[in-house]
Amino acid sequence: MSNIKSVLRNYQKAAKTAQEKQRQARELYQPDAAERECARIAAWLDGERSKAQAAIDEDRKGRMKALDDWKRLDGSKLTDDVKLLDHNLVTVEQFSGMVEKYSENATMCAALARYAERRNADARKQAGAGTVPESLFPVGIVPTAEAKAQAISRTAAGAYSVIGLIDNGFSGFGGGADSPMVDTAIENFPA
Fold first, then answer.
1. DSSP class of residue 19?
2. pLDDT tens readout for residues 159-169
3. pLDDT greater than 60 at residue 170
4. What is the CA radius of gyration of the chain?
């Protein structure tokens, strides 16, 4: 996503350049000539915006392709740790560490999720109806293809929002190419 940060910074720079050139055109030229020059600069900025949006779309598509590769289950990616799962030896406390360890291995994530769901069902059954078990496995922390796809889409939507802030915001704090809010949005963009 550092690529997206770079795209956003480059578009912000282009927007600042366009604003400055339009300001100069209004100062230097007669109104009709200034209007034509400002329109030419706006058309150039439209092209820069289109390039930025295309780069965001390309990044999203690349991440979705990588996700397709990630989510493909592969038995050769099962590790010896699956034996711990098969024998119910992993505790709730150890589970989070295993999820972190295997977050890039969809096959192990699927095994971990099934393990947690099975252990939680057993704990609920033992606790009895209307009783909440003391300790459940946090199934929701296991990475899933759906959650990763949503994150990819949110990132692209966030990048489009920053472009909107650059374009449509008013100068000063609220938005605009020279806004501290835009600077902060780009600086804090997910990496």
1. H
2. 999 999 999 86
3. no
4. 25
Separation CA 178–CA 165 (nearest Å): 10
Q: Tokens standing for 164?
A: 């909107």
Alpha helices in the chain (DSSP H): 2-28, 31-70, 81-86, 92-101, 106-127, 145-168, 180-187
**How far apart (Å, rounded) are the C-alpha atoms in residues 191 and 189?**
6
pLDDT in tens, 135-163: 899 999 999 999 999 999 999 999 999 99
What does each C-alpha distance from 116 to 40, 81, 95, 111, 123 come to in angstroms? 60, 14, 8, 9, 10
- Which residues, including other chains, have CB under 8 Å from residue 133's CB and lie 6 or more apart? 120, 123, 124, 126, 127
Per domain, the residue ranges of the chain are: 2-71+145-187, 75-141
* Residue 53: closest CA among 149, 152, 150, 164: 164
* pLDDT the model gives residue 176: 86
Distance (Å, whole) CA 63 – CA 146: 13
CA distance 13 to 166: 10
**Could you give the angle at the alpha carbon of 141 between the alpha carbons of 139 and 184, nearest 5°?**
155
- In 3D, which of 14, 115, 7 has the Cα closest to residue 53? 7
CB burial class (10 A; 0-12, 13-18, 19+) of residue 146? exposed
